[in-house]
Design brief:
Shape: globular
Strand order of the largest sheet: 2-7-1-8-9
Oligomer: single chain
Strand content: 15-25%
Order of helices and strands: EHEEEHEEHEHEHHEHH
CATH architecture: 3-Layer(aba) Sandwich
Bound molecules: adenosine-5'-diphosphate, guanosine-5'-monophosphate
Radius of gyration: 21 Å
CATH superfamily: P-loop containing nucleotide triphosphate hydrolases
Number of domains: 1
């Protein structure tokens, strides 16, 4: 009879969990392409990743909860946070101010958790410049412009003039794709989500991210008799 993989020779040597640096997963897209939906799916199914909750000066949508989707603040508060160095990045998008507060991100990364950022291309560029080895960026494209418009209308959370403005800005935003590490076309939602999961899964195994953990793991391996 052969021994089961979990019995016998390994018993004196406990497997050491391998520590790794957290991934800063940045997801950007033109408004309505589906990054919010994809982000939610990931947050609901992957317990190792946590959302960076942005602050914004835009009005809350009916479906949004303050402190869950965004922290909604007044422009004066936003400016005070910016002057106080509390923001990791910030940008004006579609006429409103958005930013990533620094402390929660630093805490999450320090405790080995991955952090998800649903931010625009300007914010993505700032994070990439500040933390080039930690950031993994994904750009989500809609299958067609007609479908992008249809999704913004179906979402039915923005006024008609707001939707018009976002569609006009979509052309400039779409042209930012060459600055991202990965490009996913969100046609079939489940297919796009599977792509997202695969990217994160592979990035978690990148050598640079697990180098310190691998060093101690390998030292332990080499201590074991054959
Ligand atoms: P974003 O966060 O990029 O602005 P959302 O995630 O809010 O976009 O998606 C916009 C709308 O499109 C939502 O109503 C969402 O349910 C819908 N949607 C997202 N992905 C798909 C898809 N693959 N197929 C059809 N509808 C989608
Ligand atoms: P919405 O108003 O649809 O929630 O977001 C509008 C745009 O602002 C989206 O492209 C979204 O990704 C971006 N955004 C949301 N939070 C932030 C943030 O903290 N920083 C930056 N730079 N963009 C953000």
């Amino acid at each position: 009879m052969t021994a089961s993989p979990s019995s016998g020779s390994m018993s004196d040597f406990q497997r050491v969990p391998m520590a790794r640096r957290g991934v800063m997963l940045v997801i950007s897209s033109p408004s309505g392409a589906g990054k919010g939906t994809l982000s939610r799916l990931l947050l609901d199914t992957d317990r190792d990743i946590t959302l960076s909750i942005s602050v914004t000066t835009r009005d809350r949508r009916p479906s949004e909860v303050d402190g869950v989707h965004y922290t909604f603040i007044k422009p004066s508060h936003f400016h005070a946070m910016r002057e106080g160095g509390e923001l990791l990045e910030w940008a004006e998008v579609h006429g409103n101010l958005y930013a990533t507060p620094r402390p929660p991100v630093e805490q999450a990364l320090a405790s080995g958790r991955d952090v998800l950022f649903d931010i625009d291309w300007q914010g993505a560029a700032q994070l990439r410049e500040k933390m080039p080895t930690d950031v993994v960026s994904i750009f989500i494209l809609p299958p067609t412009m007609a479908e992008l418009k249809a999704r913004l209308m179906r979402r039915a959370e923005d006024a008609a003039d707001v939707i018009e403005k976002r569609l006009r800005n979509a052309r400039t935003e779409i042209q930012q794709w060459p600055n991202f590490d990965y490009i996913v076309v969100n046609d079939d939602l489940q297919g796009a989500f599977a792509d997202l999961q695969s990217i994160l899964r592979a990035e978690r195994k990148r050598r640079e991210r697990i180098a310190a953990g691998t060093e101690s793991f390998v030292a332990g391996l080499l201590d074991q008799p054959i």
